[in-house]
Design a protein that fits this description.
Distance between the termini: 33 Å
Number of strands: 6
Largest sheet: 4 strands, mixed
Number of helices: 5
Strand content: 15-25%
Order of helices and strands: EHEEEHHEEHH
Shape: globular
């Protein structure tokens, strides 16, 4: 299945896979760098999505912030979601059990919508993305933030 290249940013649209695809290396590198410095946690991405125009994912750059939240802060973020207790327990267990070298816990927010996901079976492991980014740092020039942010 091919992901749509153009996506309207409305409630219920699935822009998340397109954003992840275009920003995967940075997301994965931040995930592993955060793990090395703080242990388990979750990458948070806040994305500024246009509301009245489509996004051409191969050309348009969206303002966004990628940050790593250590486990205690990640659990605090999860507790703020309006989800049932079983879902909160499932997400907390995933944070405690994911494989940081191979998987990513991701909080993705755009236009007020939040999606939390566990990325598995990745073509490029977080440790490999981190290594690639460190070797080619000048090309990417991204900021890696490890400070706690209030959602």
């Amino acid at each position: 299945m091919r992901i749509r290249e153009l996506s309207w940013q409305r409630q219920g649209d699935y822009w998340q896979p397109l954003f992840i695809r275009e920003n995967f290396l940075a997301i994965a590198a931040v995930a592993y760098a955060g793990f090395l410095q703080h242990g388990r946690g979750m990458v948070t991405c806040d994305v500024e999505l246009p509301t009245h125009a489509p996004v051409d994912w191969s050309r348009d750059l969206l303002d966004h912030q990628i940050c790593f939240q250590p486990l205690p802060y990640a659990l605090e973020l999860l507790s703020q979601l309006e989800v049932d207790e079983e879902t909160c327990i499932t997400l907390s267990a995933a944070l405690a059990d994911y494989e940081p070298e191979q998987e990513i816990m991701l909080w993705l927010r755009g236009n007020g919508d939040v999606q939390v996901m566990q990325l598995k079976n990745l073509a490029i492991a977080p440790v490999e993305a981190y290594t690639q980014l460190r070797q080619r740092w000048d090309e990417f020039q991204i900021g890696v933030s490890f400070e706690r942010r209030v959602p």
